[in-house]
Specification:
The complex is a heterodimer of chains A (464) and B (99). By secondary structure, chain A is an alpha/beta fold. Helices cover 60% and strands 7% of the residues of chain A. In chain A, helix 1 runs parallel beside helix 9. Chain B has one domain. Helices cover 81% and strands 0% of the residues of chain B. Chain B has five helices and no strands. The chains are: A alpha/beta (464), B mainly alpha (99).
Chain lengths: 464, 99
């Protein structure tokens, strides 16, 4: 009997080993669009193997496991079927679910194992539930802001950072006390509660434009908490999956922060909306030129090279399918159309690429910032749709600007710049954009979807 | 105990480096699907919850564990589904230009 159990354990470990290899291959194949779907298959096989292997554990009671798997699947299917524009909030929500799982398992393990827990195990368990707890509520807050159930503007108050640091400090002190004496079970609920509150307070002051960084950071935390859970359960597959997810989130956070020329601490504790209220006020009477859809269509039809710069505004207006029609109409006229993608355009890493791919725009037309910036000088028309701060030339020239130093798309170097925008109000961060007052800039006022539609109609009407 | 811990730390360190090197090479084009697939893979935490529920050491553990299984399974199913949907949308114009 004993040897049977040991044999079963070895089989399970062997299955986990194969699953770990498949997970790594899965991410390796995600490197490019041609192999990426193979990556999903590898991940799925690894997952099925790992769950199947776990069910082989000796002496399992399957009733509630089946209930969990069935209900999870029922919830998962609609979460996998959301609109592409809703992907940022779906992602935030799934970080919350992942963190919830880790926190709950950690809590159950705490009450099963105390008071006889080795110091190291207790430290990791505390890390697991603190990270899990704050990621759970932080991600829920992020999802709420992205879904616009909660206000998108940063909510700040005096002494905010002090309160946050104090809370985190108390949670750490409680953790240290628990590690020192695991029999003090009554401290545990307080530690979890503080982590949960901290998660809320951490995300409250963060505005919509900073969401790509925050989602990446929460992704990293979710991964690290899962890895910590792997330490507690001595499950190597979980350590590997958590480490992969943690490093993925970390890399994305670094990419996003660089693209905004800001540090993590600045994103988390800087509250973007507050800083620049004074600088935007100095407005002398500057004039911007506007144009109609007919004029815009004429200029676009006469162009050889057009670069479209999409931003979050395109996603809000659901204009990506109309943009696809514009792309078709111009391509048919022999115009070379490309799309310039800023790393932080939208609300999560890669958001614009997914939306444009959904609209059937070939991915080889989507060009990253560093590759396309040299091309703007040879571009006849740069058409900005719902993007603002990522095109603001003040980031290059005005050292007083709050976004000074942030890498931008150099649309101002194009021969003609056209900006589709609802009105002259400044962008999310409240920063005035000098691009709009340049000689070669034409403002196209209106809803992005409706305006692009009008341009497409004009292009079709002109007959060649 | 001490040795398992050291082994686990070695695995964590190596997996972290592998993750960093593999993910660094992923095109920014696919950053959104990357995030949704790592999310699905991360939900492998479900195995911990399955063991917890299956061993049935206390009713409290079974309740927390079942909720944890639901949360993680929804991530697995939803994560793989949406990643697959996204990747199916990415099409190249190159095959069309060949003929």
């Amino acid at each position: 009997m004993n040897s049977e159990i040991a044999g079963g354990q070895i089989l399970i470990s062997a299955i986990y080993l194969v699953a770990s290899a498949l997970f790594i291959l899965s991410l390796k194949w995600m490197s490019g669009p041609t192999t990426a779907r193979r990556g999903i298959l590898a991940g799925e096989i690894g997952m099925v193997l790992a769950i199947g292997g776990t069910l082989l554990h000796h002496g399992m009671d399957y009733k509630w496991i089946v209930v969990g798997l069935v209900f999870g699947t029922i919830i998962g299917i609609p979460l996998g079927s959301v609109q592409m524009t809703a992907v940022p909030q779906r992602t935030a929500l799934s970080h919350a679910f992942g963190a919830l799982c880790v926190t709950l398992v950690g809590t159950a393990e705490f009450y099963l194992r105390t008071p006889s827990v080795p110091k190291f195990m207790m430290s990791v368990l505390c890390i697991e539930v603190i990270l899990g707890g704050l990621t759970f509520t932080g991600s829920l807050m992020a999802a709420g802001k992205l879904q616009e159930v909660l206000p998108q503007r940063p909510i700040t108050y005096k002494g905010q950072n002090l309160v946050n640091f104090l809370l985190l400090g108390i949670a750490i002190v409680l953790a240290v006390m628990l590690v020192h004496d695991p029999s003090q079970r009554q401290l545990y609920p307080f530690m979890v509660a503080i982590a949960v509150v901290f998660g809320v307070l951490l995300v409250i002051p963060i505005g919509g434009a900073d969401m790509p960084t925050v989602i990446s950071l929460l992704n990293s935390y979710a991964g690290l908490s899962a890895a910590a859970m792997g330490f507690v359960l001595d499950n190597k597959l979980l350590i590997i999956a958590g480490a992969l997810d943690g490093s993925s989130g970390l890399i994305l956070s670094i990419v996003m922060s660089k693209a905004m020329n800001r540090s993590f601490t600045n994103v988390l504790f800087g509250a973007f909306g507050q800083v620049q209220a004074s600088t935007a006020a100095a407005g002398e009477a500057k004039t911007a030129k506007s144009a109609s859809a007919e004029e815009a269509a004429g200029i676009l039809a006469a162009a050889n090279r057009v670069v479209v710069v999409p931003g979050y505004g395109m996603a809000v207006a659901q204009a990506q399918h109309k943009v696809r029609e514009l792309y078709d109409a111009l391509t048919k006229k022999g115009v070379d159309v490309k799309f310039a993608i800023h790393p932080v355009a939208g609300r999560m890493p890669g958001h614009m690429n997914v939306l444009l791919a959904e609209a059937d725009i070939p991915y080889d037309r989507l060009v990253e910032m560093d590759e396309i910036n040299g091309d703007f000088a040879q571009t006849d028309v740069a058409l900005v749709i719902g993007a603002n701060d990522v095109t603001n030339p003040a980031a290059r020239t005005d050292s007083n600007s709050p976004i000074f130093g942030m890498p931008i798309l150099d649309v101002d170097k194009a021969r003609t710049v056209m900006v589709i925008k609802r009105g002259m109000s400044p962008g999310f961060a409240g920063i005035d954009n000098p691009l709009y007052y340049l000689d070669q800039t034409l403002m196209l006022f209106g809803d992005a979807k409706a305006f692009v539609n009008n341009i497409v109609k004009e292009l079709a009407g002109s007959g060649h | 105990m001490g040795e398992t811990l050291i082994n686990a730390l070695f695995i964590f360190m190596l997996a972290g480096f592998i993750g960093f090197e593999v993910i660094r090479r992923i095109s920014p084009l696919l950053h959104t699907p990357l995030m949704s697939i790592t999310n699905a893979l991360d939900a492998i935490a479900v195995v911990g919850a399955i063991v917890l529920v299956g061993e049935h050491k206390s009713n409290f553990a079974v309740i927390l564990g079942t909720i944890a299984i639901i949360a993680a399974t929804s991530n697995i199913v939803g994560g793989f589904l949406i990643t697959d949907r996204m990747l199916r949308m990415f099409k190249s114009s190159r095959p069309a230009q060949k003929p």
